[in-house]
Fold:
Amino acid sequence: MAILRALHRILAHPLTILLGVVLGFVVGFRFPAFSARLKPVADVYIALLSMCLLPILVSALVWGVGQILRARETQALVGRLAVVYAVGLLIPCIAGMTVAIGFEPGASLGPEAQARLGQEIDQAPSQQREAAGGLIGFLENVVPSNVFEALSRGQFISIVFFCVLVGLALGVVRAPGADETLGVINTFYQTFSTLFGWVLVPLAFGASSPTTSRKPRRS
Structure:
C-alpha cells in the first residue's frame, strides 16, 4: 500500500503532468508515425474524462441548489445569492455593451472585409444564427425540449438550466422522500468524483499520448 501511495503521489504531481505534456509535444512533432499509433490510447483516455464530467455536473448542480433551499443554515442566504448571481450576469453584459458602443469594433473594416464577414455569418450553422435572435431566441436555445437529447449532445447551457430547475423543485417540495433523494444524488456525485480521481491518476500518460499528429513525411 505504501508503494501504491507513493506511486500515486508521483503520478499526480503537477511536474509529472507537465512532463507528460512536454513529452506529448516532442513525440507528436519528432515521431509522427509513432504518435499516430498512440492516438487511440489518448482518445480512450479523453473519453474516460468526458464520461465523468457530465454526471458530476448534473449531480453537483441538483444537489447544491436543492440543499441550499432545504438547509436551515443557508435558507436565509438564498435572496443574497440570487442578487449576487444576477449582478454577476449583469456586469459582463454592461461591460460588453459599453465596449461595443464606445469602441465600435469592426467599424474600421473595409468593404471587402465586411463582405467576407457577412459571408462567414451566412455560412454559419442555423443554430448559431438562431442564437442571435434576441431574448426569445436565447431562451429557445436554453430551454431544452428534450432533456435527454440535450444530455446526449452535451448542450451544457440547457443542462445547467434543467439542473437548476430540478434543484429548485427538490428544495421546495415537501414530499417525505425529498431529503433522501438529495442524499442519493449526493452519493451519485461522490461516486463519480471518486471515479474521476481514479481516472486522473494516469493523466501524465494520457497527456504524453498525442491526440493529433502530423502525417508521416514520405521519403
